[in-house]
């Protein structure tokens, strides 16, 4: 799409711009805490809260061991990944300052976008 459209020729009153965006990411650590858990009683303080933490780690069996005493690996817990695509629009009045492409190209990327895309296999 062109960078702007003159809506009332021959005078440039305002510009309508449209952008597409793509956001990719992953949570290094994702935690959910339930501080009002009534399932786990705790003396003197009422109830103990539960905490769920998701991060990259190897998961071993909590009780069983191999015959040589080493841990039995069940698998691995991977990070939560997400991808969001969308559109954004803006109406900009006439004047020297605009909105949008500040680097002059059609595609702008954050510093880690290419590295994250390569790691996610996309």
Describe this structure in words.
By secondary structure, the protein is mainly beta. The protein has a domain at 1-26 and 82-122. It is 7% helix and 48% strand. The chain has one helix and eight strands, in the order ββββββββα. The strands form four sheets. It has a two-stranded antiparallel sheet. The protein has a two-stranded antiparallel ribbon with strand order 2-5. A two-stranded antiparallel sheet has the order 3-4. β6 (57-65) and β7 form a beta hairpin. The protein starts with 13 loop residues before the first strand and ends with a helix.
Could you provide a short overview of the structure?
The chain has 122 residues and is mainly beta. It has one helix spanning 113-120, and strands at 14-26, 29-34, 41-42, 46-47, 50-55, 57-65, 71-77, 81-93.
Topology:
Elements: E1 14-26, E2 29-34, E3 41-42, E4 46-47, E5 50-55, E6 57-65, E7 71-77, E8 81-93, H1 113-120
- The overall average pLDDT, rounded, is 78
Strand order in the sheet with the most strands: 1-8
Oligomer: single chain
Q: Residue share in helices?
A: under 10%
Hey, roughly how much beta strand do the residues contain? over 45%
Helix/strand-derived category reads mainly beta
Rg calc: 26 Å
Number of discrete helical segments: 1
Main pleated-sheet profile: 2 strands, antiparallel
Residue stretches low in confidence (pLDDT < 50, at least 5 long) are: none
| Helix-strand pattern | EEEEEEEEH
Q: What is the CA-CA span between the terminal residues?
A: 25 Å
General shape: elongated
Strand elements, count: 8
């Amino acid at each position: 799409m062109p960078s702007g459209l003159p809506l009332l020729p021959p005078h440039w009153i305002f510009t309508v711009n449209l952008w597409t965006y793509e956001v990719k990411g992953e949570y290094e650590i994702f935690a959910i805490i339930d501080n009002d858990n009534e399932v786990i009683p705790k003396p003197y303080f009422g109830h103990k809260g539960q905490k769920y933490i998701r991060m990259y780690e190897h998961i071993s069996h909590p009780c069983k061991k191999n015959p040589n005493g080493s841990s039995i690996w069940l698998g691995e817990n991977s990070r939560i990944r997400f991808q969001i695509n969308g559109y954004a629009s803006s109406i900009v009045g006439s004047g020297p300052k605009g909105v949008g492409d500040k680097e002059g190209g059609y595609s702008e990327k954050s510093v880690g976008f290419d590295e994250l895309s390569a790691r996610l296999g996309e």
